[in-house]
Amino acid sequence: MPDFFKMPEKEIILLATEIAILLNDNLTTDQQNTLGNFIMTVGQNMVLGAGQKAIREQYYANNKDNKDDNPGDNKSNK
After folding, report:
1. Chain-centre distance of CA 29, in angstroms?
2. In what helix (H) or strand (E) does residue 64 lie, and over which residues does it extend?
3. Contact predicate 54/42, CB 8 Å
4. In whole angstroms, what is the distance from residue 24 CA to residue 8 CA?
5. What is the pLDDT at residue 68?
6. CA angle in degrees (0–180, nearest 5) for 18-23-29
7. How far is CA 22 from CA 15, 16, 44, in A?
8. Would the pLDDT of 36 be above 50?
């Protein structure tokens, strides 16, 4: 099996389509909705975490002298 992260765009889309078709074959409509919502929620949380990590990495790269500070902390309110 090719490396998942090196797959071309069209191949990864086809893989996702095949998985969805196989998963749906033996599920009721309610089960399909529940499983689909769960998978989307997992993906959304992964994207949220990746975005937050990227913001923090960029912040720390731009503020090397202030590593104790956290982005988003409003020290003027303390």
Report:
1. 25
2. none
3. no
4. 25
5. 59
6. 125
7. 11, 10, 22
8. yes
CA-to-CA dists, residue 23 to 5, 10, 14, 57, angstroms:
22, 20, 14, 37
* pLDDT of the residue at 78: 45
| Residue corresponding to tokens 């959304």 | 44
Please give the structure tokens belonging to residue 42.
């997992």
**What average pLDDT does the segment 5-27 reach?**
94
Q: Give me the amino acid identity at 27.
A: L
CA dihedral 46, 32, 3, 47 (to 10 degrees): -10
Give the other-Cβ count within 10 Å of 2's Cβ. Answer: 10
Q: State how far the Cα of 8 lies from the Cα of 64, in Å rounded to an integer.
A: 37
Residue 30, token pair as written in the block:
């309610």
Is the backbone of residue 3 left (phi > 0), alpha (psi -120 to 50) or beta? beta
